[in-house]
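ok trying again, last paste got cut off:
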Amino acid sequence: MTERHSPHWTRRSTVRGRRSAHLALGVALLTAACTGVPDASESATSEPFDIVEATIPEMQQAMEEGRITSRQLVEAHLVRIATYEERVNAVMNVNANALAEADRLDRERAAGQLRGPLHGIPIALKDNVHTTDMPTTGGALAFDGFVPPYESTLSTNLREAGAVILAKTVMTELANYTAAGMPGNYSAVGGYGLNPYDPRRDPREGRDDGRPVMGVGGSSSGIGTAMSFWAGNVGTETSGSILSPSNANMLVGIKPTVGRVSRWGVIPITADQDIAGPMARTVTDAAIMFGAMEGAEPDPNDDSTTRCERPANGDYTAFLQADALQGARIGIPRAMYYDSVQVPGTDNFRGGLGDEARAVMDEAIQILQAQGATIVDPADIPSVVDPDPETSLLTNGGSSVLSYGMKRDFNAWLATLGDDAPVSTLTELREWNEAHRNRGSLKYDQARLDGSDAIDLEAARAEYEEDRARDLLLNGERGIDAAMVEHELDALLFPRSAGAGIAARPGYPTVIVPFARVGVSEEAAASFPEGFEPRPAPYGVSFTGGACSEPALIGLAFAFEQATMRRVAPEGFR
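nice, full thing came through this time. structure:
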């Protein structure tokens, strides 16, 4: 295949090359952005607009008042990227057309033509979401520089709502389905993402390969949103990959019901569980992005998009009510998620919170009560407390759904890419990786890809269908659904992203809200070299419900956020 020469910046395949490219990126973009263009401080009115921690409504108001333009918003975010990217490694690619797009949107605004709530707002996409103006690599070296032949439906929806797609974010390679044990936000293309709440690398022996000392979550990245590199970003989740990075970076994340947002043009793991959702600094910003992502009509390329009814005008901000907790019934799934439980038929115990995390959740529950919520405690999940090993979720956690779906759906995705794609099957990708080990394609090997590719889809179909049915039964019908019905709940409250797995299998929604920071255990602290002090990590709380319950969950999350306002920006990046 001939080498591409695209008009965008992209990472190189070596760390030194990537770092040099970052520096060149910063210089080039700053030169282009600032030469002959008025600074935001030269706008017609008063003080410069500060983008750090600025919300989407604040950006919109500033543009409406003539205090700043979309172009100047994009410039200001590019300046932050060029200034701080080397410290956190959040960016996979920057869109060289972003300033031109902002200019076009400014002209439309001046003519009184507003596309929607994101008009002129810079956002970022996970690098498994197709655009035709930047590469989509999934972090896999074989796809380095590859620009797909079509755009994802959700990218089109965001552009139609007025968003400026500024960049692609780092991610765990192929959404963490390449290798077992791969650190979050590591990929062969992007290297290691670092957590802005402690942007140091792990110094401990055996972990000193460049990975972050504080986990960043995965496989989506919240680093750039936490750093105010853009207003918000799109993540994707199969099981935890929106919620865990939102938790780790003190962000709001909406993991939608599978079917709310089209997956067309998104590198898959499995259509049974994959979904895209917004990650932002406030519930309001996440709700605005979510409405734009969903789209006005079901996508004919994704049959699941008929599952839920869209709210009027796709406006989830209508559910942002500060009193939404009054009269709400919130369940506390104590067993496993708060308190350790014995695994049926064994002497082993699983789950439970440490003392500091328990105190955090106790405080969250007290705040919910003070805001008028009825707390149902415990509201244990029936399949979790089932004492029968044959029907307990604790003894039936294994499933072939992801590995089966990866081979089925990844190969189907590859077939949509045309002849210019670097590989055409999962087998070819594995072979390419093996042939390019010396370029760093397989730092952590590819055990998950190997296992998935070994599956005979016809021979394994019955096992897959049995596993899928059990997943839906134990996690959905006898899991979340049963708990919600039994206790007449509006939501279940989970610590951090602990409920991601049980909600993922039936494809149910969750909204996570920043709340606290929690230190490492004494045992973990003792493992660091003398003099190295690990910093406390962000800790959120999650509201989970049944299928299509996003309107209610967004309302509950907003009311909790407004009552607490616990998010703080990373220190040392002003």
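cool. Residues 461-487 form the longest helix (27 residues). The chain has a mean pLDDT of 93.
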